[in-house]
Model the fold of this input.
Amino acid sequence: MARRLPLEGVRVADFSWIIAGPYGTYLLARMGAEVIKIEGLQVLDHTRENPPHAEGVRGLNRSGFFNSINAHKKSVTFQLDDPANAALAKEIAATSDVVIEAFSRGTMERFGLGYEDLRAAKADLIMLSCTGFGQTGRDAGLRAFMGTVHAYTGLNSVNGYAEGPPKATGGTWADYIAGVTLVFSVVAALRHRTQTGCGQHIDLSMADALLSTMGAPFIDYFLNGRVATPQGNASAYAAPQNVYRCRGDDAWVAISIESDAQWAALRNVLDDAELAHDACATHAGRATHADAIDARIAVWSRERTPLEATEALQRAGVPAGPSSSAGDLLEQPQLRARGFFVQPEHPEVGRRAIPNLPWRLASHKDAPCAPAPLLGQHNREVLGGFAGASQDAIDDIEARRDEVVRRFAEGTR
Amino acid sequence: MLDDLKLIELGQGVAPAFCAKLFADLGADAIKIEPPSGDILRTRGPFANNEPGPERSGLFAYVNTSKRGITLDVSSTRGRELFLELLRDADILIENNAPSWMAQHGLTYERLRKAAPSLIMTSITPFGQDGPWRDYLANDFVVQHTSGIAYSNGARVRDTELEPPVVIPGEAAEFAGGLAAAAATMCAVFARDATGEGEHIDVALQEVLAMHLQVDCAHVAYSGVVPGRAASAQPPIPYVGQQPAADGYIDFVVRTEDHWRRLLNVFGDPEWSANELFATMASRSQYWDALEPLIQQETRRFNKEELFRTSQAHGVSAAAVYTVADAAASEHFADRGCFVEHEHPAIGTLRTPGPPVRFGAEGARIRRAAPQVGEHNNEVFARIGLTQQDLSVLREGGVV
Done:
């Protein structure tokens, strides 16, 4: 018999939106939880509205980012500021094991969906609130997006090029750190509930989660009073370490030498008499002459594509790899071999590649991945099912959803 | 919360250590196995008073709290036997060795589950347990580049030749990978509670980071366009972003017309704000090169903290770009216990970041300082019946 996914049988009522919460609940869904995305029609999830839309055509079901991080979930729509709708949402929450929300502090309470409200309906509920700065503390009320958290925690101040200004951190860094922390804490709480019968309210602050990953700069400050500044691609423990220009548009190979043996291997590949100098024999010497060494490596790398350079270097035992764009990732031999991209069939935009998972379970190398839901796709199934809504209520919710979809396509929303 | 779990860590550096710390700070019984020469992280700073020494690395001390530590050369025959004995009693093994090294020493999941049938084994590697790159050599720096996070972090630059793809500092890949490994491991533990079945979790650091490229990958899959790094090649600059203040920098996230009007309010509705060229998000993007200097004229009039607080009071998502010293002094972080102290035998009072999340039930706390090299050899090896005499023989043989 096929193994069950780890979280099969766990139901999650997901009120979260934008990035951090939805990334966390995407991971819960892919680990087997039934995730019901509760989409407020009063303010739609921004990512439904934001580009990229398939072929540039506006549409609430056509956003590539939304369709990536909301795959494998169900969607139910509510007008949460309408008390009758909020009561139905509460019914879903009260029949779930976990409630996730990521509104500003106090918003769920305004809808009558705060932790105390919900706990009265389900005593052992696990609820997680994800915000920029948490539920307590002087700045808990700050308006915050991910960029705000990157700035406030000091991450941007240590990010960027040597001697340059601070740099806005790339990717969706703090959002995804928080999303993964969400999974860790919710599953730990589920386990705690199994053992004690008790639920709990988890306070997930993106800033707290991010700080916990920033050991080196803070500890250096606390121990030595050093206020870190951007160092670009350099490291105190590797030399040479940099990216080197390759053949192709904005093409680079990354190389990092941490030992004398790796240096010897690199010299073998480059076969460059100038690098035989005694001054380069030790890490300290290589660090001192890093600029000159970098120039020699670049002479070699310019003749090669990043993948050609990588193969030659790795064959010799040199830590190296291509510096990749998103386009490169889709073509990378390693990611392709591992099936890192999946292509669920979406009813409106068809098959599109989305990144699969940040880890793989040996028991489920091909964990199923359903497409992201259309807005309100599961209204009838969920509301008419365990939520026990009347036919009239369901028809009304469907009509409201249709109106929002129509107005967005027209551009009047 | 995790008092009933027994965990063994067989790895080096930040990722496996941070993963195991997240369990150990929540009460799991965690044993860290180091080679007799000590974990490589002991040779990396920051060090107390900048003086290197195996017991002086603040980073090692941070990511190894609440664990017991032993030394064991698992690559020796006797060492491997002892490792299997210790494993018999464990629920979780966290490791970050090369797949070829593990195979060479008979430490594959298939072999280990014979010693511990319901073992959860979490393997953290740069590129994963299979595929053509599985034995490629890489560190934090290399995987940040191969995964695309360095490309994304090096975006919106003026000159792509002078400003190449650039890594996020502080062993960011290792920390993110350790965190992902902990989340995956927790899922497997939850499943095992119900079924008794173990698991092998394959965490590739490259893939943990490549997930962060979801939005960029969506651009490729939905519009066929690979977002370039040049500021000029980027989609509109709608968010205003980082701007100079009189004494540093401030960051704004302006996502809607409402946010924009509020920001103009902060600036006292300067004359140019009525200019029709700046009336919509689209036109502001189009005329950004003309608009940005005007915005900077305003932002430079303020100190960063003053502008941060005023902007927030007007409902704008803004924050001063804090230095590490600023963030360390934040009253908010003090209120929430975001930095915590513990006593370390060689370092003294050590201040570190606190736990990543606040549970409603009893949460994470530092239960003991990071182990010194081989500190718990006597205690832990006694669990599998070794005497003092056995240990001195092993010590002479270089096994512990």
User: Anything to note?
Assistant: Chain B is about 40% helix and 15% strand. Chain B has a mean pLDDT of 95. The longest strand of chain B covers residues 29-34.
